[in-house]
Specification:
Blueprint lengths: L19 E6 L15 H18 L3 E7 L15 H4 L12 H11 L3 E6 L18 H4 L4 E4 L2 E4 L4 H17 L4 E4 L16 H7 L6 H23 L4 E4 L22 H4 L4 H6 L5 E2 L2 E2 L10 H9 L6 E6 L17 H10 L6 E4 L2 H5 L5 H9 L21 E8 L2 E7 L12 E8 L12 E5 L5 E4 L7 E9 L12 E4 L7
Helix pairs in contact: 1-3, 5-7
């Protein structure tokens, strides 16, 4: 029955209703998944389901799923060969056949998680075993596109055809899969190794004539790819988010007055990746710097870096890359302290220009180091959270669900509603959020403690089986669009369960 609950109150709450809570699932070298190459398909699927179930229980709402670790593929609709880390031999399909990316997307969405397809743009091999490379691998077909550095093959970012090819690889996924985001990691030009040099002088001579300094040309090459990807993703599927996870230091202050008070490697000078520029130009929707240091670290303090990035977001989202793999590391240090990572969560939540965090990596959370994962479940992520909205991509919410009913049954309270009329932008409804309050509570949709269900599908029913007899409950349902804009609420509906499960 509809009830008049008065105006909906939206006070501040300690637990954010909107927060990006991500985890990286790394496939390169089988860091996270699958546990080893060549497992049967059923075992691969079971491992991934178990992993996603565990992360759902931890409160994670997004996974960064690595699908292209080395110019290879963990997805079927690819112009590149199957990854050896999936099947044991590059170019060999899974047996029985299935599409790991499609499977991961479906399973993530079932659990109220976004899936961001994680690509490494430039790495072509991860070791020097070139004789084992598939005949269909791009290093065999276009050897002139690559240089060898540190014993591995890398795309030469200065060759225009390379950039065109990489964009096509990305668009294969954007066009053919229901991903929520495109995600790049920190590997652009290679991390510097003493005694090694990048063999791109010929490309510079051919394509860099307008640059006096090869370093500026290299940065231009990476900038160009980021801008091309941004434009292409927006053109092909404007509801897909685009983000990059750069090395945590853009530049040190001793190198550049605009940099941070740190002493470490830098994205700008060592990797030729001007990550701050990508936000400033609006080419990325989110930046996810890897701040894998403790608070007040002498060389690179987590808090100083976070403050700097928050001052350089230019209205885009900032998600902090968190070094969960360092918790309880062997050597003595601040990550031996169980309070270190919780303190980082508290610190980032105090900054309104930070919208969330992403943990490296999946296995680290599953191991529950120093009880950190328990603290996520019990304290920091104990209530669900929706991803933050991106109003520059979509600012029009869906209309509210209609004809909302709540029917007590033996199994619980059966909720049903009607699909709302199309929104002004004609975008279909993507999902729903269900809130529950006890009869005396004020309806407050800003408090995530009252969210009992988030779904990313267009089903218009839900059974609340976690109710007690003899109690009165109030329910509200809202609609979500693809970018998680939320509708106005439905009317508030009351349900009273007596001992027979009827109104």
């Amino acid at each position: 029955m509809p009830v008049d609950s008065g105006p909906i109150s939206i006070p501040d709450t300690l637990d954010p209703k909107r927060e990006f809570r991500g985890v990286w699932i790394a496939t390169v070298e089988n860091i996270d998944w699958p546990s080893k190459p060549g497992l049967p398909t059923d075992q691969q699927k079971r491992e991934l389901i178990d992993r996603l179930n565990a992360h759902q229980q931890e409160g994670i709402n997004a996974v960064m799923f690595q699908i292209r670790p080395a110019a290879d593929a963990l997805y079927a609709k690819s112009r590149e060969p199957w990854s050896k880390w999936l099947t044991g031999k590059q170019g060999t399909p899974p047996n029985p056949a299935y599409d790991p990316l499609e499977f991961a997307i479906n399973e993530a969405h079932k659990r109220g998680m976004e899936l961001h397809a994680w690509f490494n743009p430039y790495r072509a091999t991860n070791d020097g075993k070139f004789a084992l490379i598939s005949p269909s691998h791009i290093t065999r077909i276009k050897p002139e596109w690559f240089f060898t550095y540190g014993g591995i093959k890398l795309f030469n970012p200065g060759i225009p055809e390379v950039r065109d090819y990489i964009v096509k690889v990305f668009l294969d996924v954007v066009d053919n899969y229901d991903i929520d985001g495109v995600h790049l990691d920190d590997y652009f030009y290679p991390y510097q190794i003493d005694g090694q040099h990048i063999d791109d002088a010929d490309a510079f001579k051919k394509y860099g004539t307008s640059y006096a300094d090869i370093r500026d040309w290299r940065r231009h090459n990476v900038d160009t790819l980021i801008e091309m990807l941004s434009d292409s993703i927006q053109k092909h599927k404007p509801r897909v988010k685009f983000g990059v996870s750069p090395f945590g230091i853009w530049a040190n202050k001793y190198q550049n007055p605009d940099g941070t008070d740190t002493h470490g490697g830098s994205s700008y000078y060592e990797l030729f990746a001007d990550s701050r520029k990508w936000i400033k130009e609006g080419w990325v929707d989110y930046i996810n710097p890897q701040l894998y240091w403790p608070i007040d670290d002498r060389s690179a303090a987590f808090n100083k870096l976070l403050d700097w990035w928050s001052d350089n977001t230019y209205g885009r989202h900032l998600y902090i890359g968190m070094g969960a793999y360092r918790i309880n590391e062997a050597r003595r240090g601040k990550f031996k302290d169980p309070a270190q990572m919780p303190a980082q969560i508290k610190y980032l939540r105090k900054n309104p220009r930070v919208q969330g965090s992403v943990y490296f990596s999946s296995n680290s959370l599953l191991k529950n180091p120093l009880g950190f994962t328990d603290s996520l479940k019990q304290t920091y992520y104990r209530h669900p959270a929706l991803p933050p909205v991106m109003l520059w991509l979509d600012s029009i919410p869906p209309n509210a669900p209609v004809n909302f009913t709540a029917t007590p049954t033996i199994k619980g309270v059966e909720l049903r509603w009607g699909t709302p009329a199309p929104a002004k932008d004609l975008e279909p409804v993507y999902g729903y959020v269900i809130y529950r309050f006890e009869g005396t509570e004020k309806v407050n949709l800003n408090d995530p403690a009252h969210i009992i269900h988030i779904q990313y599908n267009n089903n218009t029913f839900f059974t609340d089986d976690k109710v007690k007899r003899g109690k009165t409950y109030l329910y509200v349902v809202t609609a979500l669009d693809r970018l998680k804009n939320e509708s106005e609420p439905s009317p508030t509906i009351a349900a009273i369960l007596n001992n027979k499960g009827v109104l």
